[in-house]
Amino acid sequence: MNASTQENHPLRNEPRSAGTTRIMGVDPGLTRCGLSMIDMTANRKASFINVGIAGTAAAEPLDERILRIFTVTQTWLDTYQPDALAIERIFAQEQVNTVIGTAHASGAVISAAAVRGIPVFFHTPSGKLPLPVRGVQIKPRSVVWLPRFWGWKKFLNPPMRPTP
Question: Which pLDDT score, from 0 to 100, does residue 93 have?
Answer without folding.
Answer: 63
